[in-house]
Amino acid sequence: MPLQGTYEPSAWQPVADQVQTYEQTDGREGAELEGKPCVILWTRGRQSGAVRKNPLMRVRHGQQYAVVASMGGAPKHPVWYLNLVADPAVSLQDGAELNDYTAHTATPAEKAEWWPRATAVWPDYDAYQRSTDREIPLVVLDPVAP
Question: Does domain 13-143 have CATH number 1.10.8.100?
Answer without folding.
Answer: no
